[in-house]
Amino acid sequence: MTQQATQEGLSTPTSGYDPSTSIIEIDHVTKSFGSFTAVDDANFSIAQGEFFSMLGPSGCGKTTTLRMIAGFEQPTSGAIRLDGTDVSRVPPNKRDVNTVFQQYALFPHMNVFDNVAFGPRSRKASKDEIAKRVPELLEIVRLADFANRRPSQLSGGQQQRVALARALVNLPKALLLDEPLGALDLKLRHAMQFELKRIQREVGITFVYVTHDQEEALTMSDRIAVMSDGRVEQIGTPTEIYDNPASVFVAGFIGQANLWPGTVTGRSGETADIVALGGASLKGRCQSEALRSGTDAVLMVRPERITISTNDPGPTIQRVRGTVVDLTFQGPIVRLVLHTSDDTPIIANIDPDHDLPMLRPGDNVWASWSTNAASVLPASPDHPLTATDVVDEG
User: Fold this and answer.
1) Which residue has the higher pLDDT, 2 or 377?
2) Distance CA 77, CA 205 (A)
3) 163 Cβ contact list (under 8 Å, min separation 6)
4) 241 or 388: which carries more pLDDT confidence?
5) Which residues contact 358 (CB under 8 A, 6 or more apart)?
6) Global pTM?
7) For the chain, what are the domain ranges?
8) Could you tell me the fold of the domain covering 18-243?
9) Using CA atoms, how far apart are residues 16 and 2, in angstroms rounded to an integer?
10) What's the fold here for domain 248-378?
11) Residues 4-14: pLDDT tens digits?
12) For a Cys staple, 245 with which of 38, 251, 276, 340, CB 3.0–4.6 Å?
């Protein structure tokens, strides 16, 4: 089903994602509440048919941005455009978007069919149109066999899918989702991540998703906007955000990351030389033009990109000598903690089948990684690091 569905019914399912066509434009939007700036000069667009997530900690401005798109808040400055039309001062009921919240607010006295049919009936759709469109939506959300049940007879995940079908049945230009999985238990939340993405691909409608859960964003999104203190730190695909973070905050918030303070000693194109980890001379990919010789920086390496060996791997690879201080079995990985000569910790996630002798605290080993696995990032006064604060669990 795409947004081009006709009044007679829903068209053939397709992804509908068109990166070249913007459906929502956030044009230099700032939102202030008195002296507090909740959103600071947000400037980005969301494509037709895209699953777009706004990710960040509590208070970063993601929900305020979503509420401005929905019309529940108005920008202090800037403009919000929906399909090319400025809707910055248009009330919520006049915008062609729907919102799904954590609390699904289903009508308890209505069955599933009538809950989903409520919107088309409110818009005076014909009985034939309702009789065609509602079952098609229930089929997509896999609730066709539950049409006659009341919400109290459904599980949490089923209730959420009813709320999704009710929000989608009027074919809005975008569906806004404000942490809709937050009320579900962990196992169901994981299952619903894949269900949400499947539903979004089938209906072909733009989803704008707010979450503080990095796994949700990485699993479902076409692109992610990572926000901090009201600012958009970086926008990119999950792979871009994870492998090429633009800042220390993004590197630490998305997944686990070794973050080691150091000093840039040279630059050659997109590779920077940096002294870190007790004086080791290392290299890493560097995208910031501001990082020149003598500037403070942070070296980032993901724990799963680190190889542990008892023999020196040689000078052709980035490597540091360390002492084992802790080993923790975590099922699919073993979490290994080393300390370098200056007591800087190194976290390595290694496969349990990794060909290593039995290691114990006090053993000396080598930690190594490729230059492409390391990023050199600008040091951030907003997110300072110390020698003992190098891994953020996200």
Assistant:
1) 377
2) 28
3) 100, 104, 105, 106, 180
4) 241
5) none
6) 0.86
7) 18-243, 248-378
8) Rossmann fold (3.40.50)
9) 6
10) OB fold (Dihydrolipoamide Acetyltransferase, E2P) (2.40.50)
11) 443 344 433 34
12) 251
